[in-house]
Write a structure and sequence with these properties.
This protein has about 220 residues and is of the alpha+beta class. The chain is built from five helices and ten strands. Strand 7 and strand 8 form a beta hairpin.
Length: about 220
């Protein structure tokens, strides 16, 4: 019995030691610092990098590994000294044991400092000028029964600039939609992803691409 008790005591002591060591290692592990993250994001064109709240570690189902992410906005020079590209995205690190190894950055959207996003009134004026059918697309416009109740910039437009002469954003349209060929109809709110094009920054927007997104029955 004494030998069993002694073996149990050693086992418990070993477990306590392992737990203590693991805790010490965890305590010594530090997330990449702001300076380290900014360094891997920056390029020769970078003017400034603004970091979001502290990053977090999570299991990525897509990449089948643990990653640590930190969101940022990077301000970059362009060919025009009065215009700066604003890249929104996040830096990703692989979590390898107690270490964080930089993997890559993902850009989620772009904006510009020096080029304003289209305002709600500007979008409304453009709809009036180019036509509701251009913003809904031929198929969905042909499903409208009567007049479109309302159409304009969505509450969360999600602006994303592709170039200084092309921008995407969401609009919301409320109308009665035909659901079949025997009189079926529903009042809906549809979100459309719009992309505008123009020749240069001084010219008017001249063409529109429209892609349907969310649909809500009202």
């Amino acid at each position: 019995m004494a030998k069993k008790s002694m073996s149990l005591s050693f086992a418990l002591a070993g477990l306590v030691c392992l737990t203590s060591n693991a805790a010490n290692v965890a305590a010594q592990v530090q997330n990449p610092s702001d300076t380290q993250v900014k360094k891997v994001i920056a390029s020769s064109k970078t003017v400034d990098v603004t970091l979001d709240k502290p990053g977090s570690t999570e299991w990525s189902q897509t990449y089948n590994k643990y990653i640590w992410t930190r969101h940022f906005v990077a301000k970059l020079k362009t060919a025009d000294p009065n215009i700066f590209l604003l890249e929104k995205g996040y830096a990703v690190y692989d979590v390898v044991g107690p270490n964080y190894v930089f993997w890559r950055t993902f850009i989620t959207s772009n904006g510009y400092e020096g080029i304003p996003d289209p305002s709600a009134s500007e979008v409304r004026a453009l709809i009036d000028k180019l036509g509701v059918d251009m913003f809904l697309g031929n198929y969905y416009y042909n499903q409208v029964i009567g007049e479109v109740d309302s159409i304009g910039l969505a509450q969360d437009p999600k602006f994303d600039w592709h170039t200084p002469n092309s921008v995407s954003f969401d609009i919301a349209a409320v109308y009665v939609e035909k659901t079949n060929d025997v009189g079926g109809k529903e009042k809906v709110r549809r979100i459309f992803r719009i992309r505008l094009f123009r020749s240069n920054q001084k010219s008017d927007w001249k063409s529109v691409m429209s892609v349907p997104e969310d649909r809500t029955k009202l």
